[in-house]
Specification:
Elements (H helix, E strand, L loop, with lengths): L4 E4 L14 H9 L3 E5 L8 H6 L3 E3 L13 E2 L15 E4 L10 H10 L5 E4 L15 H20 L17 H19 L5 E4 L4 H13 L6 E4 L1 H4 L13 E4 L13 H7 L7 E4 L24 E3 L10 E3 L9 H16 L2 H8 L18 H15 L4
Parallel strand pairs: 1-2, 1-4, 2-3, 4-5, 5-6, 7-8, 7-9, 9-10, 10-12
Antiparallel strand pairs: 11-12
GO molecular function, one term: saccharopine dehydrogenase (NAD+, L-lysine-forming) activity
InterPro entries: AASS (IPR051168), AlaDH/PNT_N (IPR007886), AlaDH/PNT_NAD(H)-bd (IPR007698), Lys1 (IPR027281), NAD(P)-bd_dom_sf (IPR036291)
Pathway: Amino-acid biosynthesis; L-lysine biosynthesis via AAA pathway; L-lysine from L-alpha-aminoadipate (fungal route): step 3/3
């Protein structure tokens, strides 16, 4: 079998600094017999030279459309918008189109148009035999989300009439620097509130929720002032008045179906002037999902404009929402290292999976055919792709 060339594409999403491969994981793949092509990328936290030094071949920025069809294209975030051209390559990425998000038909339709060679292995749905994701940015998403929430709170309560909003935020070199900076804001927050701040995290037992709780603790929130909710606490169904008693609410759930709203315009209005809640961080970011349990905003925010105001607030303090869909890029080096190392064992089985797929190129496969071999994760993802393509309007 000829060596598999894995093509690391650049990230074109604004403010995205993470990478699906790191120089260290690229080196491990090369040592295992892969060849690696890396597109030049000025945004990436790792310098191009770091990849070149471990044996990768550099390619021009955003040149993957001209790559051989036999080269799987690996990246993280979505491809540039306003492009409907077919995608005949195999792509490994977060496509954000399997839960019928806004525009999902157009996104997935590009792979359908690229058949028979096209394939999407969506990173969100690569699962082990227990149904857990083989690699996820969840921990760093929660960690960074809690940090941005605390920073947004500090900015609001620190201004006259709480009119100020958090400005552009840039990546931190490491967790320690981020924690140190937010710790420096805590005394001002406490002085303005006249008490210790309170946080509530839903999904606290998952990777994302653990990250949020760990950050709040490290930044100086007292443990008793961090409400750690999970399925047991939300079983009764919302909206939940307890959320409105916290200063920062962080949503870390993985949404799979419609559930009662956690908060709503009606529950906010009912709390009136007694409401403490000022900042909502929707790490889950199901903004365009019709089942979004936080129906108080309708846009994703960005690193240059991290918050959006909740409209219709008539009593109590202003309320803002953080809905950045790539929060881990606040800590791009650590987040990339953790994710890429978790993904590595699955990547090592990719050549076998592609060789097994080749004879049936362009033909659907069922999840029941995935088997139990090490490449099973890819075959299950392949079956999911075909099931989602079947949902596209004819």
């Amino acid at each position: 079998m000829a060596p598999l060339n894995l093509w690391l594409r650049c990230e074109t999403k604004e403010f995205e600094h993470r990478s699906a491969l790191t120089p260290s994981t690229a080196k491990k793949l090369i040592d295992a017999g892969f060849t690696i092509t890396v597109e030049r990328d000025p945004q990436r936290i790792f310098d191009d030279a770091e990849f070149e030094q471990v044996g990768c071949t550099l390619a021009e920025h955003n040149s993957w459309p001209n790559a051989p069809l036999s080269d799987p294209i690996i990246g993280l975030k979505e491809l540039p918008p306003n492009d409907t051209s077919p995608l005949p390559h195999t792509h490994i990425m977060f496509a954000h189109c399997y839960k019928q998000q806004g525009g999902w038909e157009e996104v997935l339709g590009r792979w359908k148009a690229g058949l028979p060679t096209a394939m999407l292995y969506d990173l969100e749905f690569l699962q082990d035999e227990r149904g857990r994701r083989v690699a996820a940015f969840g921990y760093h998403a929660g960690f960074a989300g809690a940090a941005v929430g605390a920073l947004a709170l500090a900015k609001q309560v620190g201004s006259e009439g709480e009119a100020a909003r958090l400005g552009e935020i840039k990546p931190y070199p490491n967790e320690g620097e981020l924690i140190k900076y937010v710790q420096g804001q805590m005394s001002a927050i406490e002085a303005k509130l006249g008490r210790k701040p309170r946080a509530l995290v839903i999904g606290a037992l998952g990777r994302c929720g653990r990250g949020a709780v760990d950050f709040f603790k490290a930044a100086g929130f007292e443990d008793d002032n961090i409400a750690k909710w999970d399925m047991a606490e939300t079983a009764k169904g919302g909206p939940f008045s307890e959320i409105l008693e916290a200063d920062v609410f962080v949503n870390c759930i993985y949404l799979t179906s419609k559930i009662p709203s956690f908060i709503s315009p009606e529950s906010i209005a009912a709390a009136g002037a007694s409401r403490n809640l000022r900042v909502v961080v929707d790490v889950s970011c199901d903004t365009t999902n019709p089942n979004n349990p936080i129906p108080i905003y309708s846009i994703n925010t960005t690193f240059d404009k991290p918050t959006v105001d909740v409209a219709g607030i008539k009593e109590g303090p202003p309320m803002t929402v953080v809905s950045i869909d790539h929060l881990p890029t606040l800590l791009p080096r650590e987040a990339s290292d953790a994710f890429s190392n978790d993904l590595l064992p699955s990547l090592l089985t990719l050549p076998q999976a592609l060789a097994e797929r080749e004879p049936r190129q362009g033909k659907p496969v069922q999840a029941s055919e995935a088997g139990t071999g090490p490449e099973r994760v890819w075959k299950e993802a392949e079956a999911l792709f075909w099931s989602k393509v079947a949902e596209l309007p004819q």
